[in-house]
Structure formats: structure tokens, C-alpha cells
Amino acid sequence: AAHRVTVLPGDGIGPEITAVALSVLEAAGQAEGETFTFTEALIGGAAYDATGDPYPDATYRACADSDAVLLAAIGGYKWDSLPSASKPETGLLRLRSSLNAFANLRPAKVIPDLADASSLKREVLEGVDLLIVRELVGGIYFGQPRGFGERDGEKVGFSTDIYSESEVERIAHVAFKAARTRSRRLTSVDKANVLEVSQLWREVVTRVGAEYPDVELSHMYVDNAAMQLIRNPRSFDTLVTSNLFGDILSDEAAMLTGSLGMLPSASISNDGPGVFEPVHGSAPDIAGQDKANPLAMVLSAALMCRHGLGIPAVAGRLEAAVAAVLASGVRTGDIAQPGKQTIGCKAMGRALLEA
Ligand code: NAI
Ligand code: MG
């Protein structure tokens, strides 16, 4: 079958890692008798430069009309001082929100040989395999009121953390279902000792949990979760949390695996296409230098095949290629041990195609 994928290369290293991912995806599809039609569209700074809007309507329509969206990354110094509505980051938030992609799945699995590249102890890292389910379209990143004002004669900034029962319910269902496909342990992370929004979160997750008696539910405060992720990350299997806490904890979990350049994510909706993208940003510090690690992007394409397009065999081929290349010792700079030889983004792409 032909799968319609909207491709959003975005900014910085985005176009470099996209080129690798598409070539590998095409090859893996061919081997399984699957074909893709890739429609490229603009997002982020590139879209702002071309149209004045970081998420143009044409991009929304291309995305809504496809089977899945494959996004690289957005942002860069160049656009940092624009007003909020024009910022690349706003384009990304609007993309996820317009497709109602409310559930962000971020797996973090330690690849034994890569653990050395991180500064944490090997015995703490070995066997880490966790999944963070982050609520993506609500909470403090979208809550109203927000803005700037004045208090006692000085300027203030404010944002609102707010969740409705139904918003918590739907993310809880995704998390319990995901936990069922893993080791049936779910940790819900909140700050219920201080925040009302977290008290509601905890109440609703507990209520939904009654429908999943086979999943062991526990609750943890976010500060403790941040600590346990470093101290004893193996104690976690599936975690579910709000937009803000999930943003921070998933980047923390990312570092357990040795590199942001290795981590894929899926943002899934109950109806329309999902958005599949690496966890990392546009890495403006290395953009255009053929230094980017394309593996998170390739693994995001694999998640897309499995969770968005229903072609797990192609996903398996992509993941196997990544594993084979890593096993052969080939490394981009971000995952190499100091002093060891490294290859560039394009060469990594060729190695993947060979594998
Ligand atoms: P970043 O993830 O772009 O970079 C952090 C560090 O990791 C940098 O040193 C970078 O070189 C390195 N890195 C990231 N991805 C890599 C890869 N694939 N291969 C090798 N090294 C890699 O985060 P940062 O620096 O905080 O943000 C840079 C820009 O990206 C900002 O404009 C930010 O808003 C945007 N951003 C976009 C995201 C997205 O598109 N989903 C997510 C996070 C940040
Ligand atoms: Mg982040």
C-alpha cells in the first residue's frame, strides 16, 4: 500500500537528518513492498521566513490530509527575539495542538554500549527501559490567562497550569494501555502536595486506574521522580505526567541513554494522523556541518511505521539497521567516546542503507 506522509524538515539540522531518514525509510519500505508518498511542507523558522507564519495554513492542511506527519526539528538563534506568535516554537505547539496529538510517547532505552558515553555509572544504567507518556496539548503551555502585567509597581509574568477531568482521563487511558504492553507498572508523576491541578490529576488517574486492575499504579511527586530517574532509573517502567513535568523528565531520561540524538517520540491523537519526531531540537550549534546524529530521526520514522501507519515490519527493519550500525561501532560525534573516530550524518545514512 502507499502511505501518505507529510514531511516537515524544519530548521537547523532538520533538513540533514530528514534526508537520511527518508532514504532509509524508502529502502526499508521497498524491502517490505510498502511505498510512501512524501509531501514536504514548511514549519518553524523556515515557514516564518517564507510566509510570515511559523505554521502556515497550507502546512496544517497537508498534515491533516495525510496518514502520518514526520517532523525533524524547529528553532534557532535567528528567530529567538521574535514576538511569541511568530516564534518557531509556537508553530510546533500549534501543529501538535491542531492535530489534537495529545499523547506524547517517549521511550528511553539504554543501549549497553552507549551508556559509557554518558557520565552516569554503568551499573545504574544497565537494563534501563522506560516509557514516558506526556500530556502534550494542555497544562501550563496552553493555559489561560497568561501574559505580562504589573503588580506593586513592577512587571510580572504569569502562566496558568490547568487540566480538565476529560483531558486527564484520555491521557491516563493511553498510559494504562501502554503499560499493558510493557511490564504493567505505571507511575503517575505530579506535585499534588502543592498544586490543585495535580490533586485533580491524581484523583482522575486513580479513578481511571480502576478500569485497569492488571496494571500496578503508583503516584510520585515530580521532585522525587527527578531524583529517582538518576538514582535508580530501572525502578521505572511506564510513567505518565503533565505537559511541563513530562518535558523536563523526558529530557532527563534522555540523558540516561547517552544522547538526545538517539531518542524518538510519537505524538498520538485519537482520530487524525500522529506526529513522529526526535526529542532533540534543531541543534543550531552544529547545523550545516554534517555532524548531526540522524538515528533519533530514523527511530522516529520507525515509531511512525509501527504506531501511525500500521507497518511494523518496516519499523523492525529500521530498528534492526540502527542496531546493526551501532553494533559495528560506527558513531557520530555525540555518541562517540572521547578520542574515538567519528563519522558524519551523511556517512551514517550510507551505513544504515547498507545495513
Ligand atoms: P537541542 O536539542 O537542539 O540541542 C542540545 C544539544 O544537543 C546541542 O549541543 C546539540 O548540538 C546537541 N544535539 C541535539 N540533537 C542532536 C543530534 N541529532 N545530533 C547531535 N547532537 C545533537 O536543544 P537546544 O540547544 O536547547 O535548542 C536549540 C533550538 O531547538 C532552540 O531554538 C529550541 O527552541 C529548539 N528546540 C526544538 C525542539 C523541537 O523541534 N522539537 C525541541 C527542543 C528545542
Ligand atoms: Mg524539551
Automatic annotation (TrEMBL):
Residues 4-352 form the Isopropylmalate dehydrogenase-like domain. It is found in: Cytoplasm. Keywords: Amino-acid biosynthesis, Branched-chain amino acid biosynthesis, Cytoplasm, Leucine biosynthesis, Magnesium, Metal-binding, NAD, Oxidoreductase. Binds 1 Mg(2+) or Mn(2+) ion per subunit. Pathway: Amino-acid biosynthesis; L-leucine biosynthesis; L-leucine from 3-methyl-2-oxobutanoate: step 3/4. GO terms for molecular function: 3-isopropylmalate dehydrogenase activity; magnesium ion binding; NAD binding. Its main location: cytoplasm. GO terms for cellular component: cytosol. InterPro entries: IsoCit/isopropylmalate_DH_CS, IsoPropMal-DH-like_dom, Isopropylmalate_DH. It holds the Pfam family Iso_dh. One of its GO terms (biological process) is L-leucine biosynthetic process. Its cofactor is Mg(2+); Mn(2+). Its EC number is 1.1.1.85. It catalyses: (2R,3S)-3-isopropylmalate + NAD(+) = 4-methyl-2-oxopentanoate + CO2 + NADH. NCBIfam families: leuB (TIGR00169). Catalyzes the oxidation of 3-carboxy-2-hydroxy-4-methylpentanoate (3-isopropylmalate) to 3-carboxy-4-methyl-2-oxopentanoate. The product decarboxylates to 4-methyl-2 oxopentanoate. Homodimer. Belongs to the isocitrate and isopropylmalate dehydrogenases family. LeuB type 1 subfamily. This is 3-isopropylmalate dehydrogenase.
